[in-house]
Amino acid sequence: MNFERIAQRVVTRFLQADQPSGARSEAVRLTHPINKPKGIDPDIVKEHARGVEHRNDQLKPDRRDIRPEDVFAGTPNQMGVRNFAETGRDLQKAIDKQIPKDKGHDTVYNLSQYLIRTEGGGDTPPVGKKL
What we know:
Layout: H1 3-17, H2 23-31, H3 42-47, H4 68-71, H5 76-87, H6 92-98, H7 105-117
């Protein structure tokens, strides 16, 4: 085995894995929704996608490394049951009162009606309709 060649591969992969500054915040900006989850306990939102505490035999990640909590945004579908089990509150108040106040909610809310009324829009045939 050529150990020099293996060492070069390891160094190359290590350098490729190094994240530029601002990569974590860019990953959060690109993957998280504009509006924060409503009706869910803040501690549950904060803990979403975080791993267990590091063991002694694990290497501590660099502060610039992109982590799961940076790219996996919590949604009410994923956190709603845990929130109900821990706090005893369901998401009914959030669905009825808080979510309609979100930025862009009126556009998204009416989007499905727009697609139904235009029967799919564009040059594509509408789903479920025979031509």
